[in-house]
Design a protein that fits this description.
Helix content is 9%, strand content 42%. The chain is mainly β. It has a 15-stranded mixed sheet that branches.
């Protein structure tokens, strides 16, 4: 089972409409979008982002993306994320979204439970969070550890070999196989509502544990997201 990880205007208008995966629905501070074969350009509310785009936020900045199924993905300050896959044509039954979080924090709010052939996942350097629904955060920390905290629904967290891995010191970046087939022997943990898990820098998982109701009382990032979630209802 494979599981777990947006510069403008070189497209014509018809092509942009065809490739748009999401729209910037909120922005505080500054963020940029870099297409696969382009240069970074600043983002603004209302701008479109496409599959393959890389998004970055500056310090003290927050970026919110809205997908066509009304799901949201938000980046915290000093974050970098690539929208690796985003297919929403054909309705909710065929939606597939996969993003690679290189560093920083993200918050996801998915409109409904992921099931069947649907996919909504976040890949980091050493773990992949496959969403089953519906509100969660992923923090890719500076020490390479990863926090996954689930506020609603459940997330399946597994070991990952990311496609953006590098070779030995001095070697150029190269493509490697994507996330492996993950068996329970290699480890996969289901993290439910009001639970969290920490994956160590070497990929060793902790055990899912319950977090306190007031764990985010001093966390401005979490409080901003909770407010945005409430406004989206």
């Amino acid at each position: 089972m494979k599981r777990l990880l947006f510069a403008i205007a070189f497209f014509s208008l018809p092509l942009l409409a065809q490739t748009r995966a999401a729209q910037v629905s909120a922005l505080e501070g500054r963020a940029a979008r870099t297409p696969p074969k382009g240069i970074p350009a600043p983002l603004a509310v209302g701008n479109a982002v496409a599959q393959g785009d890389t998004l970055t936020t500056e310090d003290d900045s927050r970026l919110e993306l809205k997908f066509s199924d009304n799901s949201f993905l938000r980046l915290g300050p000093h974050a970098k994320l690539q929208l690796a896959e985003a297919h929403f044509a054909g309705g909710a039954a065929k939606r597939k979204m996969s993003a690679r979080l290189f560093f920083g924090n993200i918050w996801a709010k998915v409109t409904s439970v992921i099931q069947g052939q649907q996919k909504f996942q976040i890949e980091t350097e050493n773990a992949v969070a496959g969403v089953r629904g519906t509100t969660f955060r992923v923090d890719a920390r500076t020490d390479k550890s990863v926090l996954v905290r689930v506020y609603a629904g459940a997330v399946a967290v597994a070991r990952n070999l990311p496609s953006y891995a590098t070779g030995k010191p001095g070697e150029p970046r190269r493509e490697v196989p994507g996330p492996e087939e993950v068996t329970r022997e290699k480890w996969e943990k289901l993290v439910g509502r009001q639970m969290q898990i920490v994956i160590a820098a070497d990929g060793t998982p902790g055990d899912p544990e319950q977090f306190a109701e007031d764990v985010d009382k001093n966390d401005a990032w979490a409080q901003w997201n909770q407010k945005r979630d409430a406004e989206a209802k």
